Amino acid sequence: MALDTIRQLLTLDDRYVEKVEQIHSEWDGRIFAVETLDVRLSDGSYGWREIVRHHGGAGVCAVRDDKICLVRQYRVALGRMSLEIPAGKLDPGEDPSVCAARELEEETGLVAQSIEPLAVSAGAPGFNDEKTRIFYARGLSQGSARPDEGELVDVVWIPIPDMVEAIKAGLIEDAKTVISVLAVAAGIV
Amino acid sequence: MALDTIRQLLTLDDRYVEKVEQIHSEWDGRIFAVETLDVRLSDGSYGWREIVRHHGGAGVCAVRDDKICLVRQYRVALGRMSLEIPAGKLDPGEDPSVCAARELEEETGLVAQSIEPLAVSAGAPGFNDEKTRIFYARGLSQGSARPDEGELVDVVWIPIPDMVEAIKAGLIEDAKTVISVLAVAAGIV
Which residues contact residue A94 at a Cβ distance below 8 angstroms, ignoring those fewer than 6 apart? Predict the structure, then answer.
């Protein structure tokens, strides 16, 4: 019933839809591309939108003894070290749950009996189509990590209450990681 | 003590830092720009990184009677309708809390007695420097909305438990909104 209300609010509404009249390819990289769109609004006026196109990613929330499994790494885009749940980029058409399980094992050596959808994170829907599918891992057992060549990863387990404090203090910013920690803290997994 | 451990893990570590040797400006738009970086890793090898540069944004988590205030809008990047907390883009150098309070009032007519930092959301730190600062609004009173010209906004209030279900069902994907809902559900505000 409640979900029906939300579904209805999310149904395409002609007053809001921006019709794409023309797509201009602006830049094409290895991991994302840039397009500009000529759009027509319902009042007949025209607009212009800048969009990043990316295949998206998948991440895994793995928790044991009220601690969450994180990978320590450097993020050159942010110019800082970061603690994030294990995650990776999707290949085009790849099943996100397969990608998530693979990244978990490669980066941490953890094998999950099952992984189930927890949430989706669209980080900047105003201009970026990138989505990260977040999964929750059940039935963890420890194998050995097999990082990609040149990939330097440190695995750490941090108590959920400490992560909540770190989020409030602005130390943890990665959206998929913030969402995972808060979902566990809220008891919805 | 616990935060000290996390701070230490986030201290720059020479083994991980990627030194930017050269920045190439690839594309320059109105709301973001694209750079590629030549980076040097600690083992002496070289890499290449594609980065989106954006000034970031600010959003407001406004809750009354266990319902969260959301704006209904169309997101052409995702090709779908979206329900998101009130938010807007930062101007360069703008105070995020000022931006957040302004967007709240413009989009919803709500005035907050105070807004305090709740979390930061970096949606795709692997290639995008965009961060949204999320604030929690206290002492809400209702004025009248003043949307920007051409901005069509619908304000809706949705119960937090319904939003949690919608997140688990993948209906709500916007990272700043997922984070706000889960923070309220976890009782950390």
Answer: none
Q: Cβ–Cβ contacts within 10 Å for residue B115, how many?
A: 22
- Over its C-alpha atoms, chain B yields an Rg (Å, rounded) of 19
Cα(A112)–Cα(A95) distance, integer angstroms: 16
Judged by phi (left if over 0) then psi (alpha if -120 to 50, else beta), residue A103 lies in: alpha
CA–CA distance, B79 with A58 (Å, rounded to integer): 20
Q: What is the pTM of this model?
A: 0.96
Query: Which residues, in sequence order, are CB contacts of B162 under 8 Å at separation 6+?
Result: A2, A3, A5, A6
| pLDDT at A150 > cutoff 80 | no
> What distance in Å separates residue A149's CA from the closest CA in chain B?
12
pLDDT at A141 over 70: yes
Return contacts of A33-40, CB within 8 angstroms, 24+ apart. Answer: A34/B27, A34/B29, A34/B34, A36/B29, A37/B76, A39/B76
Q: Which of B173, B181, B184, B189 to mutate to test the interface with A (most CBs of A within 10 A)?
A: B173
User: Which tokens go with A130?
Assistant: 């990138």
3-state secondary structure of A174: strand
Helical segments of B14-159, H only: 96-108
Q: Is B8 on the interface with A (CB under 8 A)?
A: no
Q: Domain-by-domain residue ranges, chain A?
A: 2-54, 57-185
Q: Crossing angle for the helix pair B175-185 and B160-168, nearest 10 degrees? A: 130
pLDDT tens column, A80-115: 999 999 999 998 889 999 999 999 999 999 999 999
Cβ neighbours of residue B80 under 8 Å, at least 6 residues apart? A10, A12, B74
- Residues 13-32 (B) with a CB less than 8 A from some CB of A: 13, 15-18, 20, 26-27, 29-32
Q: Cα separation of A136 and A86, whole Å?
A: 11
Task: State the smallest CA–CA distance between residue A67 and chain B in angstroms.
Answer: 13
Which of B6, B13, B129 is the closest to A78 by Cβ? B129
Q: How many residues does chain A have?
A: 189
Q: Does residue A60 contact residue A102 with C-beta atoms inside 8 Å?
A: no
Q: Which CATH architecture has domain B57-185?
A: Alpha-Beta Complex (3.90)
**The total number of residues written for chain B in this structure:** 189
